Amino acid sequence: MSARHLNLLGLALVGIIGLAVMWLTPRFAELDTVLDLTVYMIMAILALSLALIWGYGGILCFGQSAFFGLGAYTYAIAMFNMGESTVPLLLAIVLPAAFAALLGYFMFYGRISDVYLGVITLTVTLILFNSVNSTAGPEFHIGAARLGGFNGIPGIPPLNWPFNKTAPIDLEGMFYLSTGALLLTYFGLRLLLASQFGRIIVGIRENERRAELLGYDPRAYKLATFTIGGALAGFAGCLFANWGNFVSPTIFGLAQSAQIIIWVIVGGRGTLIGPVIGCIGIQWLSAALGANQPSGSSDFWSKIFANAPLILGVILIAFVLLVPKGLVPTLGDLGQMLLNGRRERKQRGLAPQQAE
Amino acid sequence: MAEPLLQTRDLSMHFGGVKAVNDVNFTLAQGELRCLIGPNGAGKSTFFKMLTGQLEPTRGEVLFRGNDISHAHAHTIARMGIGIKTQVPSVFDGLSVRENIWLAASRLNSRERARRLVDEMLARIGLTQAADRIVGQLAHGQRQWVELGLVLATDPELILLDEPAAGMTHEEVQKTAELVREINRTKALIVVEHDMQFIRMIAKQVTVFNRGSILVEDSVENILRNPLVRDIYLGKQAAA
Description:
The complex is a heterodimer of chains A (about 350) and B (about 240). Chain A is mostly helical. Chain A has a domain at about 35-255. Chain A has helices spanning about 5-30, 30-55, 65-80, 85-110, 115-135, 170-195, 195-205, 210-215, 220-245, 255-265, 275-290, 300-305, 310-320, 325-350, and strands at about 140, 145. Chain A is globular and about 75 Å long. The mean pLDDT of chain B is about 90. Chain B has helices at about 45-50, 75-80, 95-105, 110-125, 140-155, 170-185, 195-200, 220-225, 225-240, and strands at about 5-15, 20-30, 35, 60-65, 65-70, 80-85, 160, 190, 205-210, 215-220. In chain B, a hairpin with a 2-residue loop joins strand 4 (about 60-65) and strand 5 (about 65-70). In chain B, the strands form two sheets. Chain B has a six-stranded mixed sheet, with helices on both faces. Chain B folds into two domains: about 1-80 and about 160-170 and about 190-240, P-loop containing nucleotide triphosphate hydrolases (Rossmann fold); about 90-155, no CATH class.
């Protein structure tokens, strides 16, 4: 089986599984499960935004949560002012994208090195956290929307069908929307990465100097990649604000930023499905560990296993040390090795003199 | 006389107190093939880096077809038509040979034409069989060919080759020399090389660099006879 066939098979598999989950879940699962799955799908879109810019573009952004949070806050504020969700949804994509473009312009055209890029993006999201966190008073409002400081913004009105205020999207509808959006994002990014643009950004990740000497301007390509990543994260933020009808400054916080990076590390850089699996798996695990919280028992082990951050930390360290490429690429390598082994044995059997 | 393809005026690159390249006045005619020799540290690679925008000169200027490119970005210079094969092969190590060449070919060509050009180029550099292998896993000599293929696929007017024969077997060196002569039918080249055998196979005019400056420029026969050049550079090889 050639690489091309494997590729198509993988795409078909993702499509079938995705559609099956989308179709079956609301029919067979409890509403709780549907709600949980909805937020997993939303976070997976966020994971894909970093998978694009870090995994393919080679830009290590420690502050992807900045665009996620901006998307959520933009939607909330616009919604309280407009009451109809079409424009707020678009704003929640455009504004984070514009912010990413501005930030990216200074970073890439200022030739900031990779390490400082990580520091700057992390700082930006923490600045946003602190700024929004200190807007609790009633004097902090944008139009009709009070920012609420550390209390956040509760009661955000839900999305409605485009230009139809009277038809809000219900919980089940949110599940369909989020899952559909995740599938569209996934296939859209696959298309993007198969295009000339996508192949060039991978080339720049592999060898920036060489790409430059062939006549490509790495700054422009990185800026475009970063902006697309910002738009996607903003979109995920909008869906997230919808899901809980609530947004608070922790969305900009360190825990949120770190989590996105962990999803991508665990799932594997340089793949799209990896970060999606990493994201959903880790969220599921966190939820399972949280639900395990011992009420009465004070047994040592049950306490350890109920400590989600500790377990997640161990998982992260284990992955960085033992599976540095991440889940999906490592499985891919294993498959390749098995395939090569079989092919070699076959060749040796047929024509030993051709073996090199 | 026609306008030179490339000209440098008092071109200098100083790193602190070190004058890596100092007041170099160099002229290359349209379609010319020039060899650049000189001991290690003579400034040849620094000179190449200034021609391709990888280093901004401390002083002086580079004129390519009459345009001052001394402060232009590397990608702009590449688009104007200067291609370089660097000393240590600079390729896309994580990608396949085909993908490497495609990245070079696709800047100027439509999808369909790029694909055809890639196939042609793979045949030309003799890597059709290895087209789907990852470049990082190839032997050093083959990676050199990949880089040459990359440069040729962007169809530059002037090609700079930094030690194209380094680390190659005798057979590969001959093949490279043939290819260089063939390229020279349509393009101008500057070749930095230590291997005098190789230079004899390809060169007419030779420029000798020493301590950041041009020591002498002459035909390859005269250079080989020049006692000054023998002293600073060829002595070791002649004795060996």
